[in-house]
Design brief:
Distance between the termini: 46 Å
Subcellular location: Mitochondrion
Number of helices: 18
CATH class of one domain: Alpha Beta
Protein name: medium-chain acyl-CoA ligase
Structural class: alpha/beta
GO molecular function: ATP binding; fatty-acyl-CoA synthase activity; medium-chain fatty acid-CoA ligase activity; metal ion binding
Enzyme class: ligase
Strand content: 15-25%
InterPro entries: AMP-bd_C, AMP-bd_C_sf, AMP-binding_CS, AMP-dep_synth/lig_dom, ANL_N_sf, Mitochondrial_ACSM
Helix content: 25-40%
Strand order of the largest sheet: 4-3-13-12-14-15-16-17-18
CATH topology of one domain: Rossmann fold
Length: 580
């Protein structure tokens, strides 16, 4: 079936008019102006183009606009670290350097179109060069988070059959310890000032390489990136995205989510192995011609984050909920942000209390985004849309999002069910292609005409979605179905609670009960824990339905999390049920 793009029941989005911003005398230049050839597709009047390459059709186009003096003097890429080092690239410089890296990959490493490459790098400039170079050469990129162990790396190399890996000297020993078990691995590249036996030095090679490289012609459905899903159970699956699903998608929906311009500077604090980084630190900003800002922090420190927002003209801040929960622990009145307009949070729900604290102290909103590795961002509080605390906004323009039951029937507003996205008869452009080498799981992701997320939620009369919890996170106590997020939100309102996770715990009478794992604020670390437990329980009873209160409370120093910052409730739940 041909891949078509249609906007249905989304007329209200076209009425949202972006502000008329300027930058140093430059009028606002929208991506829709730059890519006017795609406007008829945006309106559902023709088929998606057969060929597309993000590097040649987007990045090189902005380089031409830059040369013509029609883009503001913003860099395309702006990188700093805590050591006083700084890198700024224009789109022209980005193109020049990425062509050099593309030649390293094809000439020095012998990689061809369709070959797979794993990149495990922290937030350093080379990560962005490798991304663009792979797109130019048609090499399928596989990002990995920098905290991966040798066992994790072995699984990824074997499952993906990657022919090349790029990492740092810090992870090189871990790769060497498993490389002999990876028959497809041919080349190891290291970003380092030093050398290591059996490794090529990417830093030295690309500096001395020619920049004469012709971007390969790719079909819009050709594979571009594979993400290992960050699921809380089982081995990670390989979700493959195409040139179209990540590279072309923002051309059609650019003015609804981030509302960026070439004047904008966007800072995403997420790890480089997460799809949110690819979306908000590569594809979507550069479609707008915006500047991607990166502060390479060895660890997240709230004072450094806040001071960076004061020192640099950052328009948009993006981070996991943990980031904002941490930031609101500070006296934000002491900080005057230079240019911050709004924030985005994703990965898991952000408690309404944190959103309200941030808004009252900074004046800027936090817009929630909801999505998955497989389908990207499918819901958000779009610019110009009223924010409802506790809601993750409305369906994104490319998607028909519904709440369905086990038989794939659409449920009415207010009724709890599974969050799903219509995938038939027309598969949305932003969807993943498949789980590589796993047709069973690919098939299981569909129910009737829908892709099922595995998350439970509700939709109100106005089309706003609310997250209830993972299907396997739901607690059934004395016949009541209890979502963890509502209990967690109630707990985090209490001044003693910095962070919390709620899971089921076995109970001989009720089958299972609510248990809360709580990280305390330093101000309450010396409190009487028995008294504080009763206080927290009473607080939840007053805040939400009394049957939802945590009958068990355990105080912990920290919560287990995935490498992308999601709380690993399954680990806590398994501990409770004696499976660890």
């Amino acid at each position: 079936m041909k891949l078509l793009f249609k906007l249905q029941n989304l007329k209200f989005l076209w009425t949202l008019k972006p502000p008329n911003r300027t930058f140093h005398g430059h009028p606002r230049l929208l991506a829709s102006d730059v890519y006017s050839q795609y406007e008829s597709i945006r309106r559902g009047k023709q088929e998606i183009p057969k060929y597309f390459n993000f590097a040649s059709d987007v990045l090189d186009k902005w380089s031409e606009i830059e040369k013509a003096g029609k883009r503001p003097p913003n860099p395309a890429f702006w990188w700093i670290n805590g050591k006083g080092e700084e890198v700024k690239w224009s789109f022209e410089e980005l193109g020049f350097l990425s062509r050099k890296v593309a030649n390293v990959l094809t000439k020095e490493c012998g990689l061809q179109k369709g070959d797979r490459l794993i990149v495990i790098l922290p937030r350093i400039p080379e990560w962005w060069l490798v991304n663009v170079a792979c797109i130019r050469a048609g090499i399928v990129l596989i990002p990995g988070v920098s905290q991966l162990s040798a066992k994790d790396i072995l699984y990824r190399l074997q499952a993906s059959k990657a022919k090349c890996i790029i990492t740092t000297d810090k992870l090189a020993p871990a790769v060497d310890s498993v490389a002999s078990e990876c028959q497809f691995l041919k080349t190891k590249l290291m970003v380092s000032k030093g050398s290591r036996e059996g490794w090529l030095n990417l830093t030295e090679l690309y500096k001395n390489q020619s920049a004469d490289h012709s971007c390969i012609k790719t079909r819009i459905q050709d594979p571009m990136i594979i993400f290992f899903t960050s699921g809380t159970t089982g081995f990670p699956k390989m979700a493959q995205h195409s040139q179209g699903s990540l590279g072309f998608r923002p051309l059609l929906s650019e003015r609804y989510w981030l509302d960026l311009t070439p004047s904008s500077i966007i800072w995403n604090t997420a790890d480089t192995g997460w799809i949110l980084t690819s979306v908000s630190s590569v594809f979507d900003p550069w479609v707008f011609g915006s500047c991607i800002f990166i502060h390479n922090l060895p660890q997240t420190e709230s004072a450094v984050i806040l001071n960076t927002l004061c020192r640099f003209p950052i328009d948009v801040l993006i981070g996991a909920p943990t980031l904002f929960r941490m930031l609101v622990q500070n006296d934000l009145s002491k900080f005057k942000f230079m240019n911050l307009k709004y924030c985005m949070s994703g990965g898991e729900p952000l408690n309404p209390e944190v959103m309200e604290q941030w808004k009252s102290q900074t004046g800027s909103d936090i817009h929630e985004v909801y999505g998955q590795t497989e389908v990207g961002i499918i819901c958000s509080g779009f610019q110009g849309m009223k924010i409802k605390p506790g809601s993750m906004g409305k369906a994104a323009p490319l998607y028909d999002v519904q709440i369905i039951d086990k038989s794939a029937n659409i449920l009415p507003p207010g009724q709890q069910g599974e969050i799903a996205v219509r995938s038939k008869p027309i598969r949305p452009l932003g969807f993943f292609s498949e789980y590589i080498d796993n047709p069973k799981k690919t098939a299981e992701s569909e129910r009737g005409d829908f892709y099922v997320t595995g998350d439970r939620g509700t939709m109100d009369e106005d089309g706003y979605f609310q997250f209830i919890g993972r299907d396997d996170d739901i607690i059934i106590s004395s016949g009541y179905r209890i979502g963890p997020f509502e209990v967690e939100s109630a707990l985090i309102e209490h001044p003693a609670v910095v962070e919390t996770a709620v899971v089921s715990s076995p109970d001989p009478l009720r089958g299972e009960v609510v248990k809360a794992f709580v990280v305390l604020s330093p101000n309450f670390s010396s409190s009487d824990l028995k008294s504080l437990t009763r206080d927290l329980q009473d607080h939840v009873k007053k805040t939400t339905a009394p049957y939802k209160y945590p009958r068990k409370v355990e105080f912990v120093q920290e919560l287990p999390k995935t490498v992308t910052g999601k709380i690993k409730r399954n680990e806590l739940r398994d501990k409770e049920w004696g499976r660890m």
